[in-house]
Design a protein that fits this description.
- The complex is a heterodimer of chains A (144) and B (69).
- With 144 residues, chain A is α/β, with parallel strands linked by helices.
- Chain A has one domain: Cytidine Deaminase, domain 2, CATH 3.40.140.
- Helices cover 22% and strands 38% of the residues of chain A.
- Chain A contains three helices and ten strands; from the N terminus they run E-H-E-E-E-H-E-H-E-E-E-E-E.
- The longest helix of chain A has 13 residues.
- In chain B, strand 3 and strand 4 form a beta hairpin.
- Chain B is mainly β.
- The chains are: A alpha/beta (144), B mainly beta (69).
- Chains A and B meet through strand 4, helix 2, strand 5 and helix 3 of A and strand 3, strand 5 and strand 6 of B.
Chain lengths: 144, 69
């Protein structure tokens, strides 16, 4: 894994994550970011299968629906996001324990701090915070 | 053997790779925590070891995603 990773999110995508996180309170909100490399181009909202304020999980069938959309856009699932309604934007012990994909970026939006942070987790469970940079909206942005 | 793994074409010199072996080659550290589709059909975890991948197959795998605050 590159030690120099960064993720670029458009203002639209950032706004959609904040909006979803507020709309799904008190539960955690979650979804995928579709894009190429470090550059996000779309957001795919997922249902929190746990419907919980302290936990989230994806339904595998819905995961593959998201993948299909990404493929149709000739892109990849480059990041996973979820919200922390009342805790900071950091990887919790549970987040780290369940983070088995070493290639994806984990984004956490804290409603408490109104801040989003990005992380990668390697196979030794070492967490590395990576920069999350907001970029202007792009013409073909597509909220799914 | 040419196959497509997560949207990318790959070549393996060894024919008859199982899904379990492929996940290992793809550096999946927790094969018990991925969902696999072979040619668009979901596989059960217990099928990973015995399911052979053949020329031209399309394999997609996604890690389970969950966490907690």
């Amino acid at each position: 894994m590159s030690g120099n990773r960064i993720i670029y999110l458009t203002e639209n995508i950032l706004g959609e994550i904040r909006k979803q996180a507020n709309e799904e309170l008190p539960d955690e909100a979650c979804g995928y970011i579709i894009g190429e490399g470090s550059r996000a181009c779309a957001l795919y909202k997922m249902i929190n299968a746990d419907h919980s304020p302290r936990h989230f999980s994806f339904n595998p069938v819905e995961q593959f629906e998201a993948l299909k959309v990404a493929r149709e856009m000739r892109n990849e699932l480059i990041a996973v996001y979820h919200s922390h309604p009342v805790t900071p934007p950091r990887m919790s012990e549970e987040d780290i324990r369940m983070a088995n994909d070493t290639k994806v970026v984990y984004l956490i939006y804290s409603l408490e701090a109104n801040e989003i942070k990005g992380f990668t987790v390697n196979r030794e469970k070492l967490v590395r915070e990576i920069p999350v940079e907001a970029v202007p909206d792009i013409e073909n942005w597509n909220g799914v | 053997m040419k196959i497509t793994v997560n949207g990318k074409e790959k070549s393996y010199s060894k024919p008859g790779v199982s899904v379990a072996e492929l996940l290992s080659l793809e550096e999946v550290i927790t094969p018990g925590m991925v969902t696999v589709q072979l040619n668009g059909k979901f596989l059960l975890q217990k099928q990973f070891a015995d399911t052979q991948i053949e020329e031209g197959d399309k394999v997609e795998f996604l890690h389970f995603m969950e966490g907690g605050a």
